Amino acid sequence: MTIAVIYGGKSGEHEISLVSGAAVARHIDRKHTVVLMGITKDGRWFLQDDAELERIRGDEKAAFRISEKTGTEVSVMPGMGMNAFSAGGRTIRIDVVFPVLHGTYGEDGTIQGLLEMADIPFVGCTTMTSSLTMDKEKTKAVWQSAGLPVVPYVTIRRTDMLDSLVYDRLIQHAVDTLHFPLFVKPCCAGSSDGASKARTPKELSLAVMEAFHWDDKILIEKAVNAKEVECAVTGNAVTAPADSDVEKVQAYGPGEIVLTHEFYDYNAKYNDSDGTRIPADLPEELLEKVRTTAVAAYKAVDASGCSRVDFFYDKDSGNLYLNEINTIPGFTAISMFPKMCDYAGIHFTELTELLIQEAVQRYRAHAALQTSR
Length: 373
Fold this sequence. Notes:
The structure is a single chain. By secondary structure, the chain is an alpha+beta fold. It has helices at residues 14-26, 50-57, 110-118, 127-134, 136-145, 164-178, 201-212, 266-271, 284-300, 336-343, 348-367, and strands at 2-8, 33-39, 45-47, 74-76, 85-87, 90-92, 96-100, 153-157, 182-186, 196-198, 217-222, 226-234, 250-257, 276-277, 306-314, 320-326. The protein has a five-stranded antiparallel β-sheet with strand order 14-13-12-15-16. A hairpin with a 5-residue loop joins strand 15 and strand 16 (320-326). The model has no long low-confidence stretch (mean pLDDT 93).
């Protein structure tokens, strides 16, 4: 098969995508042909030379670069299936797309919708699930309706700031019910962009302003004295047949974030190679609870392909809370998702093959559905 790895993108996680994308392409089984498509920070798509693939294969630490040569601009034609992509007037036949685009314009349903309209198999969650899970508030609402535990929170929308009485009431409600310290975060940003911790009213005001730079809706959450625990999940929550090893929903891990920073921020996630422990330092019965809850959370949002489900374990109360779900988790050398799968015996090349095969099977199941009378 010919696999298109798409990386880069317009989000604040562009540089991380260059690292994750390179790791994925490096570990796709050599029986497949790999085609590279890079998306610049301003959203333009370019077909990359074969030499770029050979360069990153020859250097385990190399990140992708994006060449912007005239005549290599990529176009996508809806409804054309495996012939949907073209560059320089030439059709590029693609069997499966492997998007490695973190955050907005990649993990939020935008590219998933484009690929569904193009009618081509792709790795990862559907448009609906990708869009839903990018919004932390809506994800919490779905999990709450499924009876799953989430960290207590208050939502503030940009429109609330137009009325000082409404805004002040929401801020006071957050302080009165959640109590300092508090975490403030954008609803639809990734890698802790715009997130900060507030211990005083002044810090809370500054944190709210920072979060609103990244999104039009923000969350104020109770700051739990927590272990940060993560669990990898693969499979198809909607159509997986009982006898399918490829589509069966399975959890791997969990692992624990060993904090060497104030909280698990962007720097800790992508630059701290000593910040994780697998398995997490928890009793076996609690490790199993994390796994079963991760699977339940994955199924509640109809996830497919893969996700990393993040938890807080409250060291004071012993409660376990769902934090968020990442439908295109990091694939860097220090990222938790591939490390947890590797610990469970699913090595990187096996993992990419599993995800590619799941994408094909999900596409076939969807293609068999009736679309008109």
